[in-house]
Amino acid sequence: MADAPQESELIDAFRALATPLISDNLARVPGAAGLRPFHRVSGVMAGRALTVRTRPGDNQFIHRALDLLQPGDVIVVDGGGYEGRALVGEIMTSVAASRGAAGIVIDGAIRDAGAIGRSPFPCFARSAIHLGPYKDGPGAINVPVCIGGMVVGPGDIVVGDEDGVVAFPIDGAAALLAAVRAQEAREAEIMLSIRENRYQGAYARASGGSH
């Protein structure tokens, strides 16, 4: 029997897969509603969750998280969905990128949207606004958080692309990977049948289909 894949191998593997396929194989339950990419999307973000909970409009604990950041981490910020003040901008995303972060996910607002939009560094959020944050706290780091209705625990795998963000625990990730790859193969065969004009509606009857 082959050895179980290591965490880094699992994360690399999910970097090649689309979030809708992952979501379908998580019973379509986990998923951050209302968050979208603000960066120049050039691939799939995948990494380990470094979670932050902060009061709405305050980014003191995001600054603290930057000092704890390990390469490959995705900073996941529960900002309560508040859009009245930006929690990060060009400077903080640049710091995160320079320290090897895989991306940043904000349940709240960002600013410097133009600069972030020209960068390939993954940044997901609800909206953009020019108003800056408070820096007073309180907050917490490496605790379970909720972003867009999705619970994310410290160390969970976080994946993001043009369709949004999904997260799941490392436990069970290998089985999930196998299921996602199997669905990807089924959908590739369906697309081939469409191109060859032999598709007969099988996808509508198959579990996991949504298009």
UniProtKB/TrEMBL annotation:
A Pfam family per the record: RraA-like
Cofactor(s) for this UniProt protein: a divalent metal cation
Cross-referenced InterPro entries: RraA/RraA-like, RraA/RraA-like_sf
Coiled-coil intervals: none
First and last residue of the signal peptide: none
Xref: NCBIfam families: PRK06201.1
Name of the protein described by the UniProt record: Putative 4-hydroxy-4-methyl-2-oxoglutarate aldolase
Organism this protein belongs to: Mesorhizobium cantuariense
Lineage, uppermost ranks: Bacteria, Pseudomonadati, Pseudomonadota, Alphaproteobacteria, Hyphomicrobiales
